[in-house]
Amino acid sequence: MCGRLALTTPPDAVRQFFGYDDRPNFPPRYNIAPTQPLAIVRQMLGGQRQFHLVRWGLIPSWAKDPASFSLLINARAETASEKPSFRSAMRHHRCLVPASGFYEWRRTPEGKQPFWIHPADGDIMAFAGLWDTWSDPDGGDIDTGAILTIQSNRMMSQIHHRMPVILKPEVFDTWLDVAHVDRREAQQLLLPVEDDFLVATPVSSRVNKVANDDEDVQRPVEIGALPETTAKSGPSPKSAPDDSQLDLF
What we know:
Blueprint: E1 4-7, H1 11-18, E2 29-32, E3 37-43, E4 49-56, E5 74-76, H2 84-92, E6 94-99, E7 101-108, E8 111-119, E9 125-135, E10 141-151, E11 162-164, E12 166-167, H3 172-176, H4 183-187, E13 198-202
Parallel strand pairs: 4-10, 5-10
Antiparallel strand pairs: 1-2, 1-7, 3-4, 6-9, 7-8, 8-13, 9-10, 9-12, 10-11
């Protein structure tokens, strides 16, 4: 699951990591939520990469009325190639989503505890994403996107049973090359990241409110130790609760 993320890395560092040619200037965002602008990196016909903004919440191009369509903020990596809502995007519109980190909530007897989850080494990473363009009857276009998720690795399974798919720079070209890499081949790249790639820091419930978009939402708080898990990649599909694509927390 991925329902909130942050992009606070300086624009020049993001550009260097993702290798796009344009030079967008954007402010730090500490609490990006669904329906808000989401940064993506996509590959153009000439092979160059481009920074672009989409609305977070994918609307397939064939949808007749976006107002009556479910908000698809996440897509399951295991089934995206076959699901009608994502099949075309997996074939034609794969992208990377720049993120400095994301937030996830762990259920406890006292309530839901938010965590700020970010790379252990470095301050930028790439989520596997999909985008699509919806056109209204009057000819207006809107680009929208979703983040692919996978069953959690050992570390993330202590917090939630799903996590974003994180892609490394060495597979960027393969994932973005929709002209030569079909959706089934691309799907093989969608795996949980290694257990020690991310670290999780408990933070206050200020992040629960979308209006709180400042560095204080990442301020650490004291909690008890996380429970140990013996699973290699989180709970099995049979025992894991259903992962609603609409559940932000």
